[in-house]
Design goal:
By secondary structure, the chain is of the alpha/beta class. The protein has 2 domains: 236 residues, TIM Barrel; 66 residues. Helix content is 43%, strand content 15%. Strands 1-2-4-5-6-7-8-9 form an 8-stranded parallel β-barrel, surrounded by 7 helices. The radius of gyration is 19 Å and the shape is globular. It starts with a helix and ends with a helix.
Length: 314
């Protein structure tokens, strides 16, 4: 329990986000106070096949401390073997292995992976036991309130996971069928906290520091995963976060750091900065003009020119 508690720190975690959580962004979030950062979801089968793209998801960002790797799949032996390989090859850099049983995306759940495993608790249990027994690292699992609309099986699923030896559980208060529609049911977190002895990590609709406090103080979560609320907003992890938000200069500084870092570390992902730039300046007076202008950015110099222009617009 001590190791997982140390990893969770003050309880502010950057969630895995496909196409968003690049190593540079994760490093920036860590510099602002994220206690633990997660890689994008990694396919255990992709690792087994030696996919270069899948391996690329494991790259670290500058300033990033130990990271959590979130694996997904449905074959217990494949997940266990890849978890063992990750621990062996990245010893000292990986803090924990997280097994995703909560992703509702069709390309994942449609293959019986991610949230679809909530419909197969026996198989889910075999996966978790196999991964726990294969590594010395803490193993955690993320899941949802349930699968079908109206379903509420999180407590039962959490107890099953705990019996398999996981070090912590993460629960999101929507069902898989809801995707990200409607509101996340925070009371689910309270019920899971009361049902298990392992730490509970909350997920769902975390957009402000107040959301983090509510999950921890009212619902008893040991830690909170921040996903969409961190897009363009690494300040959410900071103790010094102001309700007024960062200044234009601060937004430009961080956006520039992100852009330059990505151009150096993963230039093939530079096009992804278009949406990151839009997120960094969301809600500002020139947000619409920035969204339009960033669509024309194709290289580092284009992004830097736009950021200079944003400063002039002040």
């Amino acid at each position: 329990m001590g190791e997982i508690s140390e990893l969770l720190g003050r309880g502010r975690l950057l969630a895995p986000m496909a196409g968003v959580g690049d190593p540079v962004f994760r490093g920036i979030c860590a510099s602002f106070g994220a206690d633990l950062t997660y890689t994008e979801m990694v396919s255990a089968k992709g690792l087994a096949y030696g996919s270069g793209r899948t391996e690329g998801l494991l790259a670290s960002g500058e300033g990033e401390r130990r990271v959590a790797v979130q694996l997904f799949g449905r074959e217990p032996e494949v997940l266990a073997e890849q978890a063992r390989r990750l621990e062996s090859r990245h010893r000292g850099r990986i803090g924990l292995i997280d097994v995703n049983m909560g992703c509702p995306a069709r390309k994942v759940a449609g293959k019986g992976e991610g949230a679809a495993l909530m419909r197969e608790p026996a198989l889910a249990g075999r996966i978790l036991r196999a991964v726990v027994e294969s590594v010395s690292l803490p193993v955690t699992v993320k899941f949802r309130k349930g699968y079908e609309l109206g379903e509420d099986s999180a407590v039962e699923f959490a107890r099953m996971a705990e019996s398999c030896g996981v070090a912590a559980v993460t629960v999101h208060g929507r069902t898989a069928r809801q995707l990200y529609h409607g509101q996340s049911d925070r009371e689910v977190v309270s019920r899971v906290v009361q049902a298990v002895a392992v730490p509970v990590i909350a997920s769902g609709d975390v957009f402000t520091c107040e959301d983090i406090r509510e999950y921890r103080e009212r619902h008893g979560a040991r830690a909170v995963m921040v996903a969409r609320g961190a897009r363009g907003n690494p300040w959410i992890f900071s103790d010094a976060f102001s309700d007024a938000g960062p200044t234009t200069e601060e937004r430009v500084r961080v956006a520039h750091e992100h852009t330059v870092g990505l151009a150096r570390l993963a230039p093939h992902r530079l096009a992804g900065m278009r949406r990151h730039i839009a997120w960094y300046f969301k809600g500002t007076p020139h947000a619409g003009a920035i969204r339009r202008a960033v669509c024309d950015c194709a290289c580092l110099q284009d992004y830097e020119a736009l950021l200079e222009q944003i400063l002039a617009w002040r």
